[in-house]
Amino acid sequence: MSKIKLSFSLLITILLVGILSTAAFAKDPYGLKPVSQGDGNLLVTFTGNTADSVDYNSGPKTYNAISFDVVLKDSTGNIVGTSTQYNGTIDTTTGSGSVTIPAGVMTPGDLYSVELYKTADSTHATLLSKATNVVVLNPHNGAMLNTNTPTTKVDANGNTISIDQNGNGLKNSNLTGYGNPRKNRSSQKIHGFYQNNTNSCASCHQTHTAANGESLLFKDGVYSTCSACHDGTTGAYNNFAPVSTSMTSSIDGTFNVQTAGHNGSLHEADGSLQISAAPGGNKDGGQYNQEFDCASCHAPHGAGSNLENNLNTDPMGWGSVPYAAASGQSITYTKGHSQATITTTIDNKNGKLFTYGASDIIDLNNGGTIPTTETFPYILVKTTATQDNVVYNSTSSTTKAAFNYFWNRAGVTAGSLVIQTYRWTDDVTYDSNGKQTGGGYVPDYSLWNRELGYPYVANTVLKNGNTDLTSPVDPNLHVVWRDAFAWGSDVATISTAVVSIGIDVETTGNIQSLYDSTYVGDITKPVKDANGNQLYDGYGNPEYQNAFIPDSGTEMSKYCASCHVDYASVTRTDVTGVYSQAHRHATLQDKLTCVRCHYAHGSEAQILHDANDNTYFTLTAAGQVFDNQTGTLTDTQKTTNTNNAISYFTDPNPSSALKRYTGMSVCYSCHGKGEQFVGNPNNYDTTTSQFLMGGDPGTTRNVITGK
Amino acid sequence: MKKKTVYIWMGTFVALSVALFAVIYYFHLQNDAIKIASNVKGGPPTLSNYIQGDMSNPLDKPMDVTKIGQYVYVTDTNHKQVQVFDPSGTPIFKFGKQGTGQGEFQFPYGIAGDKDGNVYVADLYNDKISIFTEKGKFIKYFNFANKADTPKSPGGLRIYSNKLYVTDIQGNRVMIFDLKGKKLLELTTATAKDDTLNAPNAVTIDSDNNIYVSDTGNQRIVCYDKTGKFTRIINGSIGGTGDSKFVNPRGIGVEPNGTLLMVDNMTHYVYGFDKNGKQVFQFGGLGSDKGQFYLPNGLYVDSNGQILITDTVNERVDLYY
Questions:
Q1: Do A218 and B25 touch (CB under 8 A)?
Q2: Phi-psi domain of A679 (left: phi exceeds 0; alpha: psi -120 through 50; beta: other)
Q3: What angle do CA B231, B235, B238 make, to 5 degrees?
């Protein structure tokens, strides 16, 4: 045989092998792809073969509307159901089709195979494509909450509840749904990702070798772990966002502060400080000697709704500390879920676990009256809702009472019995001169802690005699854990209770929503954070958008006061601590919420305000005194103006106070409209060429010119 | 050899080939055959040494690393600077400071070098890619020929064959430019139009110029061919079809033998995958001991197969062979 012939034969051989291997390895021409859906369904997608397409020489490629059968077989090769049960027709434009095999048909975890035939091939003689090792996942939560879509759910007692995009309607304190409160599928917006074969616990916890206490945490890891995602490297909220215009009206500010030349101020949350370092702190607090880190304020496992920014519902663990009336006195209380009776000498006037006997619950329908002197810091009151109580209109100033807001949101109907907590406040009555004459009890919408897991100590229980009406929930009792009340006909039967008071701050992208009862916000626009990430959709309950949220400013102050106890005045005048007798701003009210004057995370020159609420961004805008925007300016001029603006806003009293206003201009920002200031020609700032303006910060200021 | 014998042998060869591939085709054994054909030889790499900086200049949250010439350049992110070491870990020099001006950083992240030794640093917050000389002198910002291509927040950065690969974390896209700033390719989606990337943190290529993207927000790696055509998803589940097993995937790189390496930030492991996306090894785990990581992030593989991994909380760069 000649070499040429031999070579030719070899080439032919290689060619043949090549052709066949191409055919053999060719990807499935029908694109058969069975994918397990989170709800237990199996979605089988497929596409038409090129041979099924027509007419792509003379226009867009189209397909014939061919029907395909999807045959499901179990691991032994037996057909599940019938061979023609599942079929779908391909789309003539995209050429793709799909079949959904509903949950329940396949046993989760078992292996199946899926085969594709043309429906026209009635005997299924020609197998077009096959997928093996097909598995569906256990839906395990049924159709659990998907906050992207308003939905209804049936609770454990068969009652139907409605849930909107913001999670309103969920009634347990961590707002994560009934049944499996800490589980989450990837489609749900609960903190982090959850799946049944999760590997994420080990991100933070070590089962046997943890260095940091009973939480099984690796040492000093909280701040770094949170920062791993919340530093702008993921789509998650960026705590280190660079300064921006919108940040100047945010609650949190930023951790990305520049210290040199900007006199930045940080809430040092990296674990280097103990909670006891908090100015005004209370040594009796639940976790006084713990490290202060992100988890001191935020719930790493999720508080359940992005509206709360994952703030802990039980900061400092106070929800499990029993309240006792006087120092050194022993107290008997019922311990959480276990219902065990505990006698302890723990004395902590800031305890938030209250026990109510039959004589402690005030029933306004049966001759009861709300006391005019303080007994407990929090009391339980039964009442009947009137028609006027249950309507809330965000644009009407006449129906903006907090109970309207919360009762309306919970669906309380007129005539229903309601039981709720009231808290004592000294700041409730005034004489004709506006001078305070006495305190009193006001409705409170903190949150009732509901602790269904270990360690069962911060739990709220409402009882009829010895019958617990909260677990399982009495069908004639709607417990609105989040807003600290319950309503329904069986309120009448509640005779005793243990209430664990938590905190629920509902926040938006603008601090005005916390303190300004006239603030409506723009309900048509989605609320975005400083980074431009959308926080909430611009639809849903209008009163729940960027507008004023009653009581949330107060809750925010209480939240800060978990550690900075003495700075929350009004609840009690004889609080413990260094400044127990000091005179101070009454912070425990919406209008003087802490974050009105302070940022939560950090502050620096570029996000500080002056008395007229100018910021770096307003004064460096085109045409303003520190203009660094106008194109005709030279780079040197721009740099000079930038430096001058930063210098103007740099706080001359650098501290850790996370101030929102530079220097002490915070005083003028509210008090500047007083008579001593209005119209005073001396109140003219030569740098900004502005007179001190009247009006509340955040609102439109009135220019006050000289005499 | 007789002609006839040759023909018989060849005929047998063809017939056996036909039979083999027919069996593969008709019995749907493609995946198994590919597995057999592409078994990765060799296991996980071996730890050589740490690069930690000296006592007065430790690293703080080193986010990314690259090798330019013989030197190792590390973005020392919390110190808002770049530190340069020799491969044994001796600090040579550092450059950059906090700020928004030229040569200053707010969040220095991705780092890469071109063939002339110039250093490119992506700043996530300043939204710029700064170019320095190999000595750390600021030259200029990378100039995007079309302003619309300027990344909102540049994260991962690599340069291969005079092409700049950059991930735009907030922009949810990966772009490839020539070094003059002309966009050559943009990747925004994976399997379908509505399957968009989400906060991609890193990008790399293999020897065939296939592109790999660490699609952090979607907890997966997305693979493309060199033209940007989607090929597969790797997420730790079989075939990439189930829920992801990754938690915060970050730096990626390809070893000379074709093994794809990925840092899984929040499980504190580094995973190796063969060419079909099948996991072939993992190493690391939570801790501060030898061979452990605590929130590792950046990964760079040099042409010799030397692997550099930044370990953000342990404040070191791990060098593997």
A1: no
A2: left
A3: 85
In chain A the first and final C-alpha atoms are separated, in Å, by 118
Q: How is residue A570 annotated by DSSP?
A: S
End-to-end CA distance of chain B: 51
Q: Strand pairing partners for A380?
A: A421
Helix spans in B27-87 (H): 30-37
Per-residue pLDDT tens digits for A217-256: 776 788 888 898 889 898 778 889 889 888 888 888 999 8
Tokens of A557: 């102050």
Lookup: tokens for B199: 């906060």
Q: How far is A609 from chain B (nearest CA, A)?
A: 21
B193 touches chain A (CB under 8 A): no
CB A521 within 8 A of CB A510: yes
> pTM for the full model?
0.71
Alpha-carbon distance of B89 to B199, in angstroms, equals 32
3-state DSSP assignment of residue A451: coil
Q: Which residues lie closer than 8 Å to A31 by C-beta, 6 or more apart?
A: A45, A46, A47, A96, A129
A483: nearest Cα among A295, A307, A325: A307
Q: Are A314 and A308 in contact (CB under 8 A)?
A: no
Separation of alpha carbons B253 and B202, rounded Å: 9
ipTM score of complex: 0.80
d(CA A206, CA A212): 10
C-alpha angle A566-A571-A575 in degrees, rounded to nearest 5 = 40
Q: Do A233 and B125 touch (CB under 8 A)?
A: no
Q: Are A436 and A586 in contact (CB under 8 A)?
A: no
| CB of B310 closer than 8 Å to CB of B251 | yes
Is the per-residue pLDDT at A296 higher than 70?
yes
Q: What would the pLDDT profile of B140-184 be if each residue is shown by its tens digit?
A: 999 999 999 999 999 999 999 999 999 999 999 999 999 999 999
Give the pairing type, strands A362-363 and A378-384.
parallel
With CA atoms as reference, report the closest residue to B173 among B147, B199, B150, B202.
Answer: B199
CA distance B272 to chain A (A): 17
How far is Cα A352 from Cα A499, in angstroms, rounded to an integer?
A: 8
Rounded Cα gap, residues B168 and B157, in angstroms: 10
What residues in B contact A620, CB-CB < 8 Å?
none
> What does the pLDDT read at residue A518?
73
Is B9 at the interface with chain A, CB within 8 A?
A: no
Q: Choose among A85, A117, A89: nearest CA to A101.
A: A85
